[in-house]
From TrEMBL:
This is NLE domain-containing protein. Coiled coil: none annotated. PANTHER family: NOTCHLESS PROTEIN HOMOLOG 1 (PTHR19848:SF0), WD40 REPEAT PROTEIN (PTHR19848). SUPFAM superfamilies: Quinoprotein alcohol dehydrogenase-like. One of its GO terms (biological process) is Notch signaling pathway. The keyword Metal-binding does not apply. Signal peptide: none annotated.
Length: 490
């Protein structure tokens, strides 16, 4: 292949927006030079430019990354027809910060008396909550690595799930009795004086109203084994809507950024609800068995609300901002992610099932799936979009994790290393790392770019049921059958 050959190329953003017109570039152009061209094209389209604001990009052709140069890319491709037409190069902004991988256990914290079934970091990553079979919800000081004196002890049965409100103030927990507890995240004290009751069976999933829709995060949704979904007013401590259309257990719910609620069920369907009035908008059919898990392309930005890890150094004290300011900041962050797939905006939803498949959906408008993703040999237990929305990771009882394109659903790679079922996975904030927890009692940290294991983290004495990566990228928490909570850092 001639080194002085050029090719006509059209640069574009992920949502399809063109960056100028086609340009001739040499095949020998490398990533640094492509970045220079892309930044020049972006700045040429801006009304006010700051030449110091250089954005690092990754570059893709037909979902395949250009890793060194165009010449190297074409050497690795069997299809050379791209020479006969304009080459479309998609520019994907990289995270402007880099998460350093966790590689050692810095604390094993005792406190729970039974298996840890759920845990989650607060939106800014500074606090941690965990739920257990001992019926308690505990809160942990991550500086001293000790539990708060106050903790949630109003439940009388196993804690099944918990969820931080995106403003970081309240934690909701649910138990096998079908009750919901509310706790003040900063102190561990109970919020209010009673548990929310109304479900007839246990609650499998909780989801808060996004911060950019309500600065006080007042509403909470719950999905239950009793086949219903309830929306609660956490200020009035009562249910304001009950959504009844599923015919079997509701396994997972997600409150989307457009005020739609997505629910998965053992009746093999996914339903899309309007949260303002409880109207069922559409039913998404396709799975041949129970639907176990859902993920939204906007999950990370909805979870973290106004907190932006790349701006941690700016020292904005979110705790001292009022609801309106937090809501405005959250809306700005959400709108950037919402427009990634399409100039008109749109969330993507992925579902994982006992039928060994995943489906990719455009749930706001379409009833038909964008893609059916096959390859797992056992049921799918967890699925997550990367924070930059570019990739999907799925965890299965077949001991593997698979990576997929979030745009097309195309299979990219299989991550193998666990020797028993993979229960949960969590992405680092910069989308470069993935951590997985398994029945084999180990955590593993994966390098996503190289598609390989980075660190094997043994230490637990039994199965790991819960794992989370802090939104600031500094630490990982894990818990499971051995009753101990472990913190992992660099």
């Amino acid at each position: 292949m001639s080194s002085d050959k050029t090719i006509l190329s059209q640069f574009q953003l992920e949502n399809g927006s063109l960056l100028g017109g086609p340009v001739e570039i040499p095949l020998t152009v490398n990533i640094r030079q492509l970045n220079s061209v892309a930044n020049g094209l972006v700045q040429a389209q801006q009304t006010s430019t700051d030449s110091s604001d250089i954005i690092p990009y990754s570059f893709y052709v037909d979902d395949i990354e250009i890793k060194e140069s165009l010449e190297k890319y074409f050497e690795e491709q069997t299809n050379q027809q791209a020479f006969e037409k304009t080459l479309n190069i998609t520019c994907v902004p990289k995270a402007r910060f880099q998460v350093i991988p966790v590689e050692r256990c810095t604390a094993t914290i005792e406190g729970h008396l039974e298996a840890i079934t759920a845990l989650q970091f607060s939106p800014n990553g500074k606090l941690l909550a965990s739920g257990s079979g001992d019926t308690t919800v505990r809160f942990w000081d991550l500086n001293t690595q000790t539990p708060f004196d106050e903790y949630g002890k109003a439940h009388r049965h196993w804690i099944l799930c918990l969820n931080w409100a995106p403003n970081g103030k309240i934690v909701a927990s649910s138990c096998k009795q079908g009750l919901i507890g509310l706790w003040v995240g900063a102190t561990g004290k109970q919020y209010g004086t009673k548990l929310l009751s109304g479900h007839r069976q246990w609650i499998n999933s909780l989801s808060w109203q996004p911060l950019h829709l309500n600065g006080s995060c007042r509403l909470l949704a719950s999905g239950s084994k009793d086949a219903t979904i309830k929306i609660w007013d956490t200020h009035l401590f009562k249910a304001v809507l009950t959504l009844s259309s599923h015919t079997a257990s509701v396994t997972c719910i997600k409150w989307g950024g457009q005020n739609l609620l997505y629910s998965a069920s053992q009746d093999r369907t996914i339903k899309v609800w309007r949260t303002t009035d409880g109207i069922l908008c559409r039913t998404l059919d396709g799975h041949a068995h129970w639907v176990n898990t859902l993920a939204l392309s906007t999950d990370y930005v909805l979870r973290t609300g106004a907190y932006e890890p790349s701006k941690e150094s700016s020292n904005v004290d979110l705790d001292n901002l009022d609801d309106v300011a937090l809501q405005t900041m959250a809306l700005e962050r959400y709108e950037k992610v919402y427009s990634i797939f399409d100039t008109n905006g749109g969330e993507r939803l992925v579902s994982g099932s006992d039928d060994f498949t995943l489906y990719l959906w455009k749930p706001e408008t379409d009833k038909k799936p964008l893609a059916r993703m096959t390859g797992h040999q056992q049921l799918i237990n967890d699925v997550k979009f990367s924070p930059d929305t570019r990739l999907l990771a799925s965890a299965s009882f077949d001991k593997s994790i698979k990576l997929w394109s979030s745009r097309t659903g195309a299979f990219l790679s299989t991550l193998r290393g666990h020797v028993q079922a993979v229960y949960q996975i969590a992405w680092s904030a910069d989308s470069r790392l993935l951590v997985s927890g398994s029945a084999d009692s180990t955590l593993k940290v994966w390098n996503i770019e190289k598609r390989c294991i980075l660190f094997d983290l043994p230490g637990h004495a039994d199965e790991i049921y819960a794992v989370d990566y802090s939104p600031d990228g500094q630490k990982v928490a894990s818990g499971g059958k051995d009753k101990s909570l472990k913190l992992w850092r660099r």
